[in-house]
Design a protein that fits this description.
The structure holds two protein chains of two kinds.
Chain A lengths: L2 E3 L4 E5 L4 E3 L2 E3 L5 E7 L5 E7 L5 E3 L5 E5 L4 E6 L8 E8 L5 E3 L3 E6 L1
Parallel strand pairs in A: 2-12
Antiparallel strand pairs in A: 1-4, 3-9, 5-6, 5-10, 7-8, 8-9, 10-11, 10-12
Chain B lengths: L3 E3 L3 E4 L5 E7 L5 E8 L3 E8 L6 E2 L6 E7 L2 E6 L8 E8 L12 E2 L3 E5 L1
Parallel strand pairs in B: 2-11
Antiparallel strand pairs in B: 1-3, 3-8, 4-5, 4-9, 5-6, 7-8, 9-10, 9-11
The chains are: A mainly beta, B mainly beta.
């Protein structure tokens, strides 16, 4: 069965430092992977997705994610964090019926 | 831009009431989804629909039903609300991927925070 794991409930980083939010997946066949962000009291906003091709995917707000097939990972990264990046981040994988399976979410806290 | 709207941001209901949550999208998307979000559990799929008058159960359909009479509108119904249905409800839509399917992005509404007393 397909699944997604986000091993960290919270990630803390100082403003200006690089950030990484981790995601690993389990899926049969080729994975379709997504990252979403949720600001307080808001719905989910799409950040980026990996379908095929280049392992480094660039998305909104300066975020990028690296697909690693051998490690079954799709970590979200940003070279320089902003306080405004503080939010809840969800990784998701699309299953064989084209439904999304979400991880439990990682809260990112960027301190000034 | 894709726009998905939900009828209420906050809703308070009493146990046993029938509750309707409405979702409307303006991008002519074929697919629509209802999720609930609970802390530590991520998003769980309740129901989805690939076409008008069509519905499929998701992972947690018990206690819920849905209606899709028009392409742009997808309603979630709690037949008899219970306290364990207190949650954030999120609607999403996406376009059809075709016969071979594709990883079409789901776009989300702002959510409805439902409290059942």
């Amino acid at each position: 069965a397909q699944s997604v794991a986000q091993p960290e409930d919270q990630v803390n980083v100082a403003e200006g430092n690089p950030l990484t939010v981790k995601c690993t997946y389990s899926v049969s066949g080729n994975p379709y992977l997504f990252w979403y962000v949720q600001y307080p009291n808001r719905g989910l906003q799409f950040l980026l997705k990996y379908i095929t091709g280049d392992n480094l995917v660039k998305g909104s707000y300066g975020f990028e994610a690296e697909f690693n097939k051998s490690q079954t990972s799709f970590h979200l990264k940003k070279p320089s964090a902003l306080v405004s990046d503080s939010a809840l981040y969800f990784c998701a994988v699309m299953d064989s019926s084209y439904k999304l399976i979400f991880g439990s979410g990682t809260r990112l806290l960027v301190r000034p | 831009d894709v726009k998905v709207t939900q009828s209420s941001r906050y809703l308070v209901k009493r146990t046993g009431e029938k509750v309707f949550l409405e979702c409307v999208q303006d991008m002519d998307h074929e697919n629509m989804f209802w999720y609930r979000q609970d802390p530590g559990l991520g998003l769980r799929l309740i129901y989805f629909s690939y076409d008008v008058k069509m519905k499929e159960k998701g992972d947690i359909p018990e206690g819920y039903s849905v209606s899709r009479e028009k392409k742009e509108r997808f309603s979630l119904i709690l037949e008899s609300a219970s306290t364990n249905q207190t949650s954030m409800y999120l609607c999403a839509s996406s376009s059809y991927g075709g016969l071979a399917g594709s990883a079409d992005t789901q776009y989300f509404g702002p959510g409805t925070r439902l409290t059942v007393l």
